[in-house]
Known about the structure:
- There is one protein chain.
- This protein starts with 5 loop residues before the first helix and ends with a helix.
- It is built from 15 helices and 10 strands.
- It has 352 residues and is of the alpha/beta class.
- It is globular.
- The strands form 2 sheets. The protein has a 6-stranded mixed beta sheet, with helices on both faces. Strands 5-4-3-6 form a 4-stranded parallel beta sheet.
- Pyridoxal-5'-phosphate binds at residues 58, 60, 86, 154, 185-191, 240-241, 287, 289-290, 319-320.
- Pyridoxal-5'-phosphate is lined by residues 58, 60, 86, 154, 185-191, 240-241, 287, 289-290, 319-320.
Amino acid sequence: MIWRGIIERYKDYLPVSPKTPVVTLNEGNTPLIFSETLSQRLDVLVYLKYEGLNPTGSFKDRGMTMAISKAREEGAKAVICASTGNTSASAAAYAAKAGLKCVVLIPNGAIALGKLGQALIHNAQVLALDGNFDEALSMVKQISSQYPVKLVNSLNPYRIEGQKTGAFEICDQLGKKAPEFHAIPVGNAGNITAYWKGYKEYFGKKEVASKPVMLGFQAEGAAPIVNKKIVPEPKTIATAINIGNPASWKAAEAARDESGGVIDSVTDGEILSAYELLAKKDGVFVEPASAASVAGILKLSGQDYFKNKKGATIVCVLTGHGLKDPDRALQTVREPQRVPAKLEAIWEAIKL
Ligand SMILES: *Cc1c(COP(=O)(O)O)cnc(C)c1O
């Protein structure tokens, strides 16, 4: 079967009709990769849902195909969002395809290079705010309530609807089975909300016989849900989750509590170790925020959380591609060694 994106595949579960003008870049259908390294370390079966392989390099595309298709159906001429980077990249691409004007508000100087390049090349109007993400979100909420421009942040319910298809895909890829545990980075908390909604719906329709325990991970410097307190000035190298007042805070807590799960925090050091481990041992390059899910299960494993769970399946969502943030990669490694154009010198350098 030819893949035509998540709306075509899962339309029975989505608020669309034959009249909906579907705007798709064939998002979804991302690989679920078995991790030998992590499975050995944790003594459970660990799979990586590599969402960095979506068309614009992050899971945001699942929600954006819905939000932009519905914006077109409703006759919108322009869309707007606040973004730590990936929402703007995705909105810009889908708006370009739909022929809609796209305005994005980003915290000045705080988004990764690749994401900024994407928003600009897709011809979005990029406004760099003297303020952080939470302030940018508050601004676009007010603007979209007063002017004829559609908000495409995850407060837009169609975003959550599209993103829940990640849960359907995981269950389908595991052979109509939900994993025992689902680990995921938490920023604005839309995605954990969406996955939990997806798992509940698949369970409700008897596609699967169980639901996973939800494990959400915030960065220590941006962990309002963990600390039960708004963080006025969040700070983490994982820019995609550098959020101090998540829009879906309550829904994330509900996902945690209904599933019997946890929302915990991981340090930037733990995030970077997981980031390097994924690249060096699994051959999977993600952006730092994505590594929070893996950092999180390594942390829980260190506290014996998965004791007696041998044979259980954990799925870690890897939310975005490593090429989004090339600066971070280059800061993490050594510079290439220079060699003269001489065979002996190259042989000497290789040191087999
Ligand atoms: C948006 C994003 C997140 C956070 O998702 P929320 O829905 O805001 O919790 C995590 N990682 C990456 C790469 C993202 O782009």
